[in-house]
Design a protein that fits this description.
By secondary structure, the protein is α/β, with parallel strands linked by helices. 41% of the residues lie in helices and 18% in strands.
Length: 330
């Protein structure tokens, strides 16, 4: 009798574990989008105790690799999907729904002890980061006359990061075009710590990471030298991203949902919860919410299982404005 009870107990535990595993939602990808998805997951799990949402960070590119192999249900992305990632998904019969969830302004930051930088131009950023700068542009004095003859220490996104793809295309003119002699990481917290501990450091990452660490970083306004986008240096903020004056480092960020995963009730619940609560939670973690109409359009896109990318699977979308995003979703 005791043996039968033990076997029955084991069977019950196995059934519970199997049921629990069936309610697991796997998300991976962008460190930029991570704070939003993590905040949504926390709120969602409070209301849905039987569902576990696991959110990882492997960079946008790393996330798309896992997503394209069918290893995750949802992929966080700080840029649109690239052709090679579309091909990988196609090879594995992975269809997807692209959903914009927020706007972000890439923040360029220096250490608070930096007294010489009050703004930088896009040309100066290119001079710092282009491939030809490697082992050549190594001091601040190489950037602008009057800057000190101090070593330039750079911190930036790793090559698997969507932020790397976007920044290099926006600043250097081609995705992936960058010097390699800098401290790289897909984890923005590593970059924050690097710049905050290095007096001559400069780095770039999502605005939310600056907002969370503004006490130990100095934000650098950027001048794109294009009068149409605003006069002079402009700092990233909700207002300057919304009115499109912070260019070219403002961008939409996304989640990609597997069509197969969207057949599961728990994934449907999570994605709908995400889009219905994004405006509030996006703002709380330091990003810029989309207009209500954009979230409604994304919700309709998900409910109708509209597959593919409105960006044509071509990767980074430089200079896309919120109103343009709305038009593309219609």
């Amino acid at each position: 009798m005791k043996r039968i009870f033990c076997i029955a107990a084991i069977a019950v535990v196995a059934w519970i574990n199997q049921a629990y595993a069936a309610k697991l939602i796997k998300v991976d990808g962008s460190s930029t989008v991570f704070p939003i998805t993590e905040a949504v997951a926390e709120e969602f799990q409070k209301a849905n105790s039987g569902i576990k949402v696991m959110v990882g960070i492997s960079g946008t590119g790393g996330g798309f690799k896992r997503f394209g192999r069918g290893e995750t249900d949802i992929s966080d992305a700080s840029r649109p999907i690239k052709p090679k990632e579309v091909d990988l998904a196609r090879e594995n019969n992975i269809e997807y729904i692209e959903l914009p969830v927020a706007y972000d302004g890439l923040a360029v930051v220096v250490n608070p002890r930096n007294t010489w930088v009050n703004h930088l131009t896009v040309r100066e950023l290119k001079k710092m980061w282009e491939p030809d700068a490697q082992e050549m542009v190594t001091k601040w004095s190489h950037i602008r006359a009057g800057f000190p003859d101090t070593e330039l220490r750079l911190y930036g996104a790793g090559t698997d990061s969507g932020t790397f793809d976007y920044f290099t295309e926006a600043i250097c003119g081609k995705s992936g075009s960058s010097r390699g002699d800098y401290t790289a990481s897909e984890d923005d917290n590593v970059l924050v710590e690097g710049v905050s501990s290095e007096a001559s450091g400069l780095g770039y990452f999502g605005l939310a990471y600056y907002e969370q660490n503004k006490d130990k970083l100095k934000l650098v306004p950027i001048d794109d030298q294009n009068e149409a986008n605003g006069k002079g240096p402009v700092a990233p903020a909700m207002e300057t991203v919304m009115d499109s004056t912070y260019q070219p480092l403002a961008r939409p960020i996304f989640i990609y949902v597997s069509v197969k995963a969207a057949q599961k009730e728990e994934v449907v619940k999570f994605v709908e919860f995400y889009l219905k609560h994004a405006a509030q939670l996006v703002k709380e973690v330091g990003y810029i919410p989309l207009p209500d109409a954009a979230y409604q359009a994304a919700l309709e896109r998900f409910k109708n299982r509209v597959k593919g990318s409105v960006f044509g699977g071509k990767g980074a979308a430089i200079g896309v404005k919120i109103e343009d995003l709305l038009k593309r979703q219609k």
